[in-house]
Design goal:
Layout: H1 8-19, E1 24-28, E2 36-40, E3 53-54, E4 66-67, H2 82-90, E5 108-109, E6 115-119, H3 124-129, H4 135-147, E7 156-159, H5 173-190, E8 194-198, H6 200-207, H7 213-216, E9 221-223, E10 226-231, H8 234-239, H9 244-260
Parallel strand pairs: 1-4, 6-7, 6-8, 8-10
Antiparallel strand pairs: 1-2, 2-3, 5-7, 9-10
The protein binds iron/sulfur cluster.
Iron/sulfur cluster is lined by residues 89, 92-95, 97-98, 104, 161-163, 175, 178-179.
């Protein structure tokens, strides 16, 4: 097989997979070539933004899964460790937010935390610093943590999206779909006693529902076998102090679940 050129969606498709930091060999049935074999690795990304190296003929794979854009391969995220995930997120271009972010915001805290807080997406301060929940909302979250006897170092804090949506708009479905695998793997690795979703968007996304925040705040849910509660986002508390009392009730429940599950 001679060399060839990747076009349009196929090229983007491979670049997206590479952004996730995969080490893969593909044999691709292509509409523009009979066959294209590519070898990729995370280490190629910093020097080669296209990240694609055509294999010499001597290395061409002759068997293996045939890949088409209708039949995408596993991204590799589900087998990454935390360091690999962080690297993958730092170079991620799986959605268009990569072109407007200043920094990715991977998440912060104890990788063996009993409680993981999940917000919606980085805001302006988070985008600038690369750290979740800084600024006024972050300071309030620190106070909430202190009220139940925790510090930031005790818990893990992350967001549904790792990059800031322009003007802090709600995440779009396509962005959530592109990004949610990172959070799922983070939660799988941390394996906390309980997840606390901060706000409607985080609750709806994790629980795959369109229920209102009022409904979501009722009771204890489960995310992949991990207990999950939903409470107000700290930014909502800043806008409406009336949410402070119900949030305190939610935090007491969170602490109770955490304490009960400490021996799990
Ligand atoms: S929001 Fe998530 S999927 Fe989109 S570019 Fe950032 S890290 Fe990648």
């Amino acid at each position: 097989m001679s060399g060839g050129v990747l076009h349009g969606d196929i090229k983007k498709y491979f670049r997206d997979r590479l952004s996730a930091g995969n080490m893969v060999v593909y044999r691709l049935a292509s509409p523009v070539e009979d066959e294209i074999a590519l070898k990729t690795s995370p280490g190629q990304m910093p020097d080669d933004r296209e990240g694609m190296v055509r294999l010499p003929d001597s290395e061409k794979v002759v068997s293996g899964p045939e890949v088409t854009t209708e039949n995408p391969p596993a991204s590799g995220i589900s087998s990454m460790d935390m360091a690999g995930l962080r690297t993958a997120v730092a170079g991620c271009e799986r959605c268009s937010l990569s072109s407007t972010r200043t920094n990715t915001v991977f998440g912060d805290g104890n990788p063996r935390a009993r409680i993981v807080f999940v917000g919606e997406a980085p805001g302006r301060d988070e985008d600038l610093q690369g750290v979740p929940f800084v600024g006024r909302s972050g300071k309030l979250l620190d106070k909430i943590l202190a009220a139940i006897g925790f510090t930031r170092e005790d818990v893990f804090i992350a967001n549904i999206l790792k990059c800031r949506p322009p003007n802090n708009r709600d995440p779009q479905d396509v962005e959530v779909v592109a990004c949610e695998e990172y959070l799922a793997r983070q939660l799988q690795l941390i394996d906390p006693v309980v997840i606390c979703a901060l706000g409607r968007v985080a609750g709806q996304t994790l629980l795959k529902t369109k229920e209102s925040l009022r409904v979501l705040r009722e009771g204890i849910h489960h995310y992949n076998g991990i207990r999950l509660i939903v409470t107000y986002h700290p930014a909502a508390l800043l806008r409406n102090p009336n949410f402070k009392r119900p949030t305190w009730e939610d935090m007491k429940l969170l602490k109770k679940i955490c304490d009960e599950g400490a021996g799990d």
